[in-house]
Amino acid sequence: MQHPWEMTASEIAASVRTGKLSAVEVAEAHLSRLEQVNPRINAVVQEFPEEALAAARQVDTAIARGEDPGPLCGVPVTIKVNVDQKGHATTNGLRLQENLIAEHDSPVVANIRKAGGVILGRTNTPAFSLRWFTKNDMHGQTLNPRNRGITPGGSSGGASAAVAAGLCAVGHGTDIAGSIRYPAYACGLHGLRPTLGRIPAYNASAADRFIGAQIMAVSGPITRSIADLGLSLAAMAAPDLRDPWYAPVPTGPRDFPKRAALTLSPDGMPVSEAVQKTLLKAAEILKAAGWTVTEVDCPPIRQAAELNAQLWMADTLFGAAEMIGNEAEPDSQFVFQQMLKDTGKVDFETLMKALQSRATLVREWELFLADYPVLICPVSGELPFAQQLDVSSEQAFARVLEAQLTQRGLPVMGMPALSVAMGEFDGIPTGVQLVGPKYREDILLAAGTDIEAAGDRPTVSTPDWD
């Protein structure tokens, strides 16, 4: 018999809605799984079982009254510790923010609650949500439940590890340079970076974000099925006027031509043989499903990655450089210094020219995606990295940065991107990235569904170490 923690979000919502399972039964099963497994991987760093059970009872009460609790009817969800959740610290992996208790839910948390989601806990992130690895002095290191020797990804590494280990069915993540897409890739899951403005964002515990984060950072779901991404997106994208960037665009499917572009090496980025084989496999799957796939060069991505770094560095130098020094966390200090060296001086003129160049790139990409509604490209140029590779040396950091070219570049243009799991290569998770036009997550989910249908759906992994 299938345990509730092995079920997808869609299966759980259907079972709770029809009375096959109660929301309390589902929550209790996941809380038990959390108690047994989380100590081995350290994915969830803030736990509140009584709150979770109270939320589950509310779902069951609504059903008993004949009411619809919402699309996430009883689904266990985790929240990343860099967004506000009322009554809990928005630490962002920082000792400096240990006592930064949120007085209000962020929009994405409020929307999950309104949709009937049951929040079980809050997940780990690297200090400042800065890296593609998840470790900090506040909460410790998160391990990948599929392989402790490789990163669970970052910065939403706790979210991806929690979903992969069956601690929740949906993990909330954020993405400014790959922090949803890469953790999903590293943990053998699916992860959706929505269009900028699709899911409302706001943290009342902090001042409004600077321009780089405003135009590049988004929230989104990490799950074990493509259908669950659509379910989660619909829930998370409910209106909230606290975000001035929010765009009330319907999330449902619309017609589109089944045309895809394949770019094996965007802008000449080095891509390993294993990753290229996975990309070619995805292209063949889509062809078999009726898609026309053409191998072409995509628009510039390297320039976009440079703009990402400039915008991020402008934000950081203006608003967080002092905090990085005061937190005194060695890994984030090392990464900050390497990124500063890579980016160079970011003054007013640099910032203004970066914003001007962004408009040109957005135009090029939108025209390209009008011809090819899906781009198939690497999530990363390499299979998931060994733990802590980025801080092992300056040379290793440079290698990681180059491999993550698409992770860094795509957020600049604001379009949606989907990381699709495609099994393992020599025991290491692998997958592909799909990119689509703004507000057309439905196209990416359709292509992702076709790829998923031709392979094995990601399953729960139980770590085999103490």
Describe the structure in your own words:
This is Amidase family protein. Residues 25-445 form the Amidase domain. By secondary structure, the protein is α/β, with parallel strands linked by helices. It has a single domain (4-454), classed as Amidase signature (AS) enzymes, CATH 3.90.1300.10. Helices cover 42% and strands 14% of the residues. The chain has 16 helices and 13 strands. The chain has helices at residues 9-18, 23-41, 49-64, 107-114, 157-164, 181-186, 211-216, 226-236, 273-288, 302-319, 321-327, 330-343, 348-371, 394-403, 405-413, 441-453; strands at 44-47, 76-80, 118-123, 135-136, 140-141, 170-175, 190-193, 218-223, 259-262, 292-295, 374-377, 417-425, 428-435. The strands form 2 sheets. The protein has an 11-stranded mixed sheet, with helices on both faces. Strands 4-5 form a two-stranded antiparallel ribbon. The protein is globular. The two termini are 26 Å apart.
User: Within the largest sheet, what's the order of strands?
Assistant: 1-3-2-6-8-7-12-13-11-9-10
Into which percent range does the helicity of residues fall?
40-55%
Overall, the morphology is globular
Q: What's the architecture in CATH terms? A: Alpha-Beta Complex
CATH topology: Amidase signature (AS) enzymes
Number of domains: 1
Low-pLDDT parts are none
Structural classification: alpha/beta
Largest sheet: 11 strands, mixed
